[in-house]
Amino acid sequence: MVDPGGGCWSGWVASLLRDAGYPTRAIHDTPDGRFPFRDPNPSVPEHLLALREAVVAEGAGLGVAFDGDGDRVAFVDERGRALPADETAILLIRHLVPGEPGARVAHDIKCSQAVADEVRRCGGVPLMERSGHTFLKTRMIRENALFGPEASGHYFFRALSGGDDALYCALMMAGLVARAGSPLSELVRDLPRYATTSDIRVRYTGNPTALLERIAASFPGESVCRLDGVRVQFLEGWGLIRPSVTEPALTLRFEGRTSEALRRVVQEFVAVAPELGPWIEPFANPSSRPRPGSTRTP
Question: Which residue from 236, 251, 258 is spatially nearest to 198, judged by alpha carbons?
């Protein structure tokens, strides 16, 4: 079951998948740049409610959603659960990396630690890169990397000269599920799942450079990465803060190996940047987290 969302794949991606041997039906299959069917961003599960319902109602083994310009993709299992991009990345890492020991996998700085851990477990070498299509593609080419997942739903492949292609990724996932002979929900059941927030956008009218310097200097005993903003790696999780280049805003993201670890990581940031506390502390409590993608103002 595919959901092009009225974007550029509408009207023909279903027939391409059928030609490849996968019986396929489509929803939201009429091109319309006003995107009346759903938000074109497929990385938010709430945007895929119609696809998730259609997969269950039709008994489909896989749901595929594309973004408006067709280069990002997200997947839904046969039970109607939307897979986070990190889970898709780990499935593809397990499919690709064991066949090439030492293969390099470039991933963006927002990906779960589980992605890098899985690359190492499969015998590969993880390479962290700053977020952004251009940065990841450039790293793919420079390092001759085998694969490159991004948290937003771009997936880059050496087979495409380092480029990304949502249809190529969808065909790979469809083949993976078909060959496994098991439902997609079974394939992801044993994947590591860490407690990870969505992007937290905070409007910030202070001096972002001074704030980032203060945060970086506050953790002398931890691994601090300045590749893209400030990312602090703790023993049981990490926190990332990045300034916007187009508006007075910050984007933050946190992860812990457990929910309690996530709470502690958030509290570490609150301790050194208390002015952000009212806007990031709710994300330490999964039951009270704001909706993904919302922007909060101090």
Answer: 251
Cα–Cα distance measured from residue 75 to residue 180, given in angstroms and rounded to the nearest whole number = 16
Give the start-end residues of each E strand in 160-234.
Answer: 195-196, 200-203, 223-225, 230-234
232-248 pLDDT, tens per residue? Answer: 999 999 999 999 888 89
Domain 2-76 architecture: 3-Layer(aba) Sandwich (3.40)
CATH of 85-187, one of 3.30.300.20, 3.40.50.740, 3.30.420.10, 3.40.120.10: 3.40.120.10
State pTM to two decimals: 0.93
Sorted by where each begins, the domain ranges of the chain are 2-76, 85-187, 195-296
Q: How far apart are CA 71 and CA 58, in angstroms?
A: 26
Angstrom distance (rounded) from CA 83 to CA 75: 6
pLDDT at 37: 97
Residue 291 has pLDDT above 50, yes or no: no
